[in-house]
């Protein structure tokens, strides 16, 4: 993309933010406190956070699973959308990220762990435990799964997301799917990374779901997400 197009995307995002997003001190504090505490600035943008959270409202989701908490920025968006209707369960591998996220959530008026529970550990260790709990009836299955952690495991998380879902109508959202496929050389000119997993091709061959990829521009430049609905 040209520099002009990137700048246009940023300008439109700023305009959208001004007119369609309400001021939210909890979210502003989450950004500021995360920066102060040394967390990387790789959270979703406000516009993306609102969009993803609106999907949970559209689908009347009651149980959201998030993989990759960071400072809880997207988590706050989901918690706001789920208020009075359900719960967010988020997984984070770095203790400092989890601690800052809890601070940010509480400062935003979100009750932890009642409204948002953050599970500490590597997602591939935690997801099988969640599967067991669902199977034993100790936990409800999820109706919305937001995947935003290490890119190498996007496919593994997707596969778990479908298994942990309530089934028909559940939604799986894979953030950064476009940059992952470009940077790993699956699409485009970059040299293909050895062992790169083609998430889009895997999802396309998966009879359990129907899916699409949406490319995006905005304050976070060019990227895109994969959205799948369980059949
Ligand atoms: C892009 S950030 C998440 C941003 C967050 N969803 C937001 O928009 O506010 C990715 C997070 O995933 C965490 N992460 C990376 N690998 C992980 C793993 N194997 N299991 C759980 N979390 C992981 C990182 O520590 C980081 O905090």
TrEMBL record:
Q: Does GTP-binding count among this protein's keywords? A: no
InterPro entries from the entry?
Cation-dep_OMT (IPR050362), SAM-dependent_MTases_sf (IPR029063), SAM_O-MeTrfase (IPR002935)
Keywords in alphabetical order: Methyltransferase, S-adenosyl-L-methionine, Transferase
Query: Some GO term, biological process aspect, for this entry: which one?
Result: methylation
Record's superkingdom? Eukaryota
One GO MF term attached to the UniProt entry: S-adenosylmethionine-dependent methyltransferase activity
Q: Does the keyword Methyltransferase apply?
A: yes
* Cited Pfam families: Methyltransf_3 (PF01596)
Family recorded in the similarity comment: Belongs to the class I-like SAM-binding methyltransferase superfamily. Cation-dependent O-methyltransferase family.
> Can you say what this protein is called?
O-methyltransferase
Specify the species.
Penicillium frequentans
């Amino acid at each position: 993309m040209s520099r002009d197009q990137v700048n246009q995307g940023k300008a439109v995002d700023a305009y959208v933010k001004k007119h369609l997003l309400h001021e939210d001190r909890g979210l502003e504090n989450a950004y500021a406190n995360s920066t102060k505490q040394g967390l990387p600035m790789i959270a979703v943008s406000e516009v993306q956070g609102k969009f993803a959270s609106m999907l949970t409202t559209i689908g009347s989701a009651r149980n959201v699973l998030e993989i990759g908490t960071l400072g809880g920025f997207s988590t706050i968006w989901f918690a706001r959308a789920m208020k009075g209707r359900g719960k967010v369960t988020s997984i984070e591998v770095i203790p400092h990220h989890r601690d800052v996220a809890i601070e940010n959530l509480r400062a935003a008026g979100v009750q932890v762990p009642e409204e948002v529970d953050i599970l500490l550990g590597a997602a591939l260790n935690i997801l099988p435990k969640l599967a067991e709990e669902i199977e034993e009836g100790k936990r409800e299955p999820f109706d919305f799964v937001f995947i935003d952690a290490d890119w190498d495991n996007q496919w593994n998380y997707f596969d778990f997301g479908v298994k942990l879902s309530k089934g028909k109508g559940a939604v799986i959202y894979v953030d950064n799917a476009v940059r992952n496929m470009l940077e790993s050389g699956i699409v485009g000119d970059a040299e293909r990374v050895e062992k790169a997993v083609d998430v889009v091709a895997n999802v396309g061959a998966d009879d359990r779901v129907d899916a699409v990829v949406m490319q995006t521009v905005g304050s976070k430049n060019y990227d895109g997400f994969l959205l799948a609905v369980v059949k």
